[in-house]
Amino acid sequence: MAVFRSGLLVLTTPLASLAPRLAPILTSAARLVNDTLYVHLQPGMSLEGPAQPQSSPVQATFEVLDFITHLYAGAKVHRHLDVRILLTNVRTKSAFLPPLPSSVQNLAHPPEVVLTDFQTLDGSQYNPVKQQLERYATSCYSCCPQLASVLLYPDYGSGELPVEPLDVPLPSTIRPASPVARSPKQPVRGYHRGAVGGTFDRLHNAHKVLLSVACILAQEQLVVGVADKDLLKSKLLPELLQPYAERVAHLSEFLVDIKPSLTFDIIPLLDPYGPAGSDPSLEFLVVSEETYRGGMAVNRFRLENGLEELALYQIQLLKDPSHKENEEDKVSSSSFRQRMLGNLLRPPYKRPELPAHLYVIGLTGISGSGKSSIAQRLKGLGAFVIDSDHLGHRAYAPGGPAYQPVVEAFGTDILHKDGIINRKVLGSRVFGNKKQLKKLTDIVWPVIAKLAREEMDQAVAEGKHVCVIDAAMLLEAGWQNMVHEVWTVVIPETEAIRRIVERDGLSDSAAQSRLQSQMSGQQLVDQSHVVLSTLWEPPVTQLQVEKAWDLLQKRIPKMPSGP
């Protein structure tokens, strides 16, 4: 059967009966759709009979909110799918609701196929039912002109499950502000305006639950705060966060898709309170278990400033059963960023001028990042390692290729009595003086690059296929021009300072000055092909390096082996 990029899944089974069948239904849909899967809830709708079915409002109850959470939680096993539950027909109990739209709703990815769980009497692909399904889909949403249709029953194996509605409610996932016990059939209250906030990096299903609940509660406007700048500093692996504009673009497309009738105000979140702390027109705030205390702090802040408290809706975290030992046990962007470590982030450079059959990695990172320990791990896996510091010592040594030019440029007072260049004196002469520093690097960097080329020839002579240039100043020196890939080791600045102080005996301020004189981790990552981190225990770092090495071996043969 054909596979489609985008699809629309129309669910017609009552929710209580649908929940236990959801996993096989999603599996069947995932075999047919490989990118975006829209989901439209219309429980109780029949596709048999002469009359064309019409979209009707679905009462927003806590059972519906729990089902939406359940669906997104179940969809996480299909990682290739971008699932979006459409909310236009899900209505709260409010007097100020606008009528259901009579026009067709545009979708960012018009469905190429419409699927349904609707069961025909004999389980066949009954054409009149498929025609009704296609008519219904095109009356609600913008679909591709050549829309295909598939009845998923009996492919999802409903025969193994009870057909009668089950009385067992779904686990409660939404906790309203009121301490009063809630029942599944209890209607959800609607509000004019509300807010939700987060980092929204690599929009995932836990984000979608948070946003969907906020969209159901809001009837006119939803303010969405997106963490930026100072609020990102404490994030794990912040260098791998999507840029703010990219996060907003994905967020905006998702929100407009699921509920286009709302006005969305997406703004940068620069402090813990954001607009929720100061906007008198807001009525509710959706938070997760993790950010509930922050929501309470927002309400205290509002009361202190003469504003009414917001109704807080707390969403339970989605568990991630496939998380690894050093990852969070919830569905989180932090875990996604950890899983990026060792992966190829952009295409390698083609370097036909480098020695044939030798693949060159440039390894860099801020001071204290653990770059040299990564180099040694790569050496243990079979790489030929070129240490640029050692090459620097060779270049500066009496008789070395940089010795005479440096002495002529900076004078004999930089020499020890035995004629060796005193690198501390030389360093103090150029530190903080851009002109003097450039004079020095213009002499030394080309020399080290030439020595590195000679070392590459030695690697070839030894029969090595991978060569690693370990160089803190790789990008500043422009040495990316002689590597196929740049690999960067990242570490939080606070940890880097701690390591420098411990290793070199410097003060905190001296360590910080050293880091400020280098490119930042973010600047390095922006030009990198692979990112690694030594933030965790050594066995975790080793697994990370082995993963990167194994992936490297798979792509080396694909690279040109010469001019």
From TrEMBL:
Reactions the enzyme catalyzes: (R)-4'-phosphopantetheine + ATP + H(+) = 3'-dephospho-CoA + diphosphate; 3'-dephospho-CoA + ATP = ADP + CoA + H(+)
GO molecular function: ATP binding; dephospho-CoA kinase activity; pantetheine-phosphate adenylyltransferase activity
Entry GO CC: mitochondrial matrix; mitochondrial outer membrane
Pfam family, one: CoaE
Localization per Swiss-Prot or TrEMBL: Cytoplasm; Mitochondrion matrix
Enzyme Commission code: 2.7.1.24, 2.7.7.3
Family per record: In the central section; belongs to the eukaryotic CoaD family.
Cited function: Bifunctional enzyme that catalyzes the fourth and fifth sequential steps of CoA biosynthetic pathway. The fourth reaction is catalyzed by the phosphopantetheine adenylyltransferase, coded by the coaD domain; the fifth reaction is catalyzed by the dephospho-CoA kinase, coded by the coaE domain. May act as a point of CoA biosynthesis regulation.
Subunit-structure text: Monomer.
This protein's name: Bifunctional coenzyme A synthase
